[in-house]
Write a structure and sequence with these properties.
- This protein is of the alpha+beta class.
- It has a single domain, classed as Roll (Thiol Ester Dehydrase, Chain A).
- The protein contains 3 helices and 7 strands.
- Strands 1, 2, 3, 4, 5, 6 and 7 form a 7-stranded mixed sheet that branches.
- Strand 4 and strand 5 form a beta hairpin.
- It is globular and about 45 Å long.
């Protein structure tokens, strides 16, 4: 078992976002280019927060920015595959949210790629990190069935 598996055990996902594979996602090898997966993860995170917070995040004031990401590729995705991204929050800190995501083949559930990331609460007006707004923190904790608090 790797250190990443010990840090975040298998997550029960409660949010799923279907993804349409576009022709320009495909590279010369005939599968979705690895760089495109980041777009899929970004899209699914936005959908997750829209669902959990009940609104879109904006970038004019309080928002979340990506501070760290790690992606593991398990098997290729082809243009005719039907995929979705499962998204979940595994830990909430004072200023950060730690998330896990999986690109899955919709019918079989096979995991095509997985991601771990850290998002930081950020105030665009002052250009600095801020404490995670209490409403956001509570909405995420209420939505997720299994979550760790980084600091009490």
């Amino acid at each position: 078992m790797s250190s990443k598996d010990q840090e975040f055990p298998a997550h029960v996902f409660l949010h799923f976002a279907p993804v349409q594979i576009r022709f320009n996602d495909i590279d010369i090898m005939g599968h979705v280019n690895n760089s495109v997966f980041q777009h899929y993860f970004d899209y699914a995170r936005l959908q997750y927060f829209r669902h959990v917070l009940g609104r879109h995040l904006t970038w004019e004031k309080e928002t979340l920015i990506l501070a760290s990401i790690c992606v593991d590729y398990h098997c290729p995705v082809h243009i005719n595959d039907r995929i979705e991204v499962a998204t979940g929050t595994v830990m909430v800190g004072n200023k950060s949210i730690h998330m896990v995501q999986e690109v899955r083949e919709t019918e079989s559930g096979n995991i095509m790629a997985s991601s771990r990331c850290v998002l930081v609460a950020f105030d665009a007006a002052s250009n600095c990190s801020i404490p995670l707004p209490g409403e956001w923190r509570q909405s995420v904790i209420s939505f997720e069935k299994e979550i760790r608090l980084k600091y009490g």
